[in-house]
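hey so u asked for the seq, here:
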Amino acid sequence: MIGVTISDGRRSGSINIINVYISKATSAGDWEFLHHIESMGSCIISGDFNARSPVWGELDALIEGSGAAPVFTLQDLQAAIKRMTDTSSGPDLLTSKEFKALSNRELHVLLGEINTSIKTGAIPTHWTDSFLVPIPKPGKDHRTLAGHRVITVQNAGGKLVEGLVSRSLAATLEPQLPGSMGAYRRGRATWLNVGQVAHLITEAFEAKQHVLTVSLDLQDAYNMVSVPLLARNLLDSGVNPYLVRWILAAFQSRRCALKCGRWLSEWTNVMMALPQGSPLSPVCFNAYTLPIATMTLPPSMQLFTFADDLLLVATGKSLDLLQIRMQETLDSLDTICRRASMTVNPAKASACVFSLSKRALPPCQLRYAGRPIPSEDSVTHLGITLDKGLSFNTHVEKVVSSCTRSLGVLKMAKRKGVNQARLLQLYRSLVQSRLLYGAEVITATASALEKLDRVQTAALRIVTGCTRDTARATLRYMANLQSVPQQVETLRVKAVARALESHEHPLHEVARGLVTRPPLRRLRRAGWLRRASDTLRELRGRHQFRSRPQFEPTPDGVAELWTIISQHSLGRSCREWPPGVANVEFESLLEELMAEGDALLATDGSVIREPLPRSGWGCFIRSAELTQSVSGATRLVLSSMRAETEAVTVGLSALNQLLPDCQHIVVATDSQSLLRKLEGGVSPPECVAIRAIQSRLARQPAEEAVMAARHHLDIGSGQRIPSELGP
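ran it, structure tokens below
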């Protein structure tokens, strides 16, 4: 068998290829499908090669005047290898283990080959060789092409290089991508777009407004991409011409073979648009659809994109006016899609009106490209179903039905004698992942969440083998799990905490506003952001919300002030020393480090989970003028490093007030993690700000601050580092 493609002549003078792959043969029907494909014979594979040729000429002209080619460093290569995961091997039969075992000399050889390829634009053929392994879709007709899902298994070496280029490309494009574009971006969860939509709907309900949504799907998205247009979009976005040329070469042609079990077809060269399975394809697709994501929209309307899924959201008091604006937007979107050679699948388009009005609302009369868009009572976007009242009852019913079917797999595994640890892993992958997907957004009633909790209880009974009269709390204790409502609340609060921490988060400003702004109208079910903000407000007590990352790159002027000293002689073995010996050793170390006028800041953090979760931090301050301790606590469970960071922060803040003229500070900490952060070039922003303030008060720059690492130190009678949980 040579290879199979289907031609689609959508533009004159060029033929775009829709790749057709074959399923792994698991039944007689699959083999019939294979024979049907083989009977079609070989096809001549072509593409928009003629349209790509002018772009090559433009790139060559740009490269001549663009200077040196970008160069990847050994650190870049080592980081890329570290990110490699254990996946199926491609035609080269190499896995991540082989690359992680490379010697330093071999890494330099590989790095030289990669940089040479970037400079010349020539890609070794074996980098892009791939197996095409189609898998039958459950419940589909395996004799048709639509009944299969294709997995592309590329050579590990090629994926490594494409991953390097993809990461560089993503760093260039990230500042230009709007917050409403959610796919293939670091730190963006899949449900985040739905979370933004759910918040908009809740805000509209508070303002007594309607919400009109239209869900669209780009048909055969990767195969419809015009590579010449993609190259021009990348150049307009400021991507280095060397990288654009290399990407164009990577998409030029690939050797592929169909692999069905032990059967392997003959190798054939396939020209494609964005190849499946390539690390470059997702990032390039974001660049290609950027004109769609940034299109001009009327007031009170937003467009959310996630790969090939589009969702238009309009809010307002007049439903008729919303339909007029939505129709105008759909017409503009159709024009932009045609310009980008993209088409919308009419079978997957739907419209939905969200409203708390008790009066019956007329159906929407919307059309896309002349075809009517059906009106639905709910919309399913990225796997989460939003009903018109935002009750999530429909979504919960779908999740319960899906998870109940998965319980059969657990029962079968139990009968086969699978041990409890493996069964619990199976539960987490098959059941819990579905129960908690998008849980941050779900604001269902207590009775609806109880249905999800019953599914978890049934699964835990299968895993543990306990009888039906076993209490739920006992089952959860055995599996070290919380109830589903508790897990939902925890995930929701964590999501808002992350939004408050990162200024780049699309919900950062919204979350900050909800912390202080009361709702416009009390609803029976508050929105997910409002609920999480209320929970955080109860937990934080007198503490403030963090509105920036815990660690940021240390400014060059400040990094020179820190000197890291690790004293390994005071390890864990000092616990067994006689009383006072550790203190004498520590004091002798301080005599070497400290001079007259220096201050000592010894810190410690503590985290407990039983009987009540709490975290505390404390510090001991000693100088020639004073001796003082400062401590604090919260009802949150922090990490040990986070508690230690708080201790350092409050200690520096106290020193800033007590000893404003102090120029040298010795900070003693037993947190190796904190020291590694400082050595890596990042530091808590509060510490940097405090030191900067202190320097201004002294009217001269601080010279140095020495971090001496200590392990479980006792500073003598009456001077113990406070590790209690504060007041």
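The two ends are 76 Å apart (CA to CA). The longest strand covers residues 599-608.
lmk if thats what u needed
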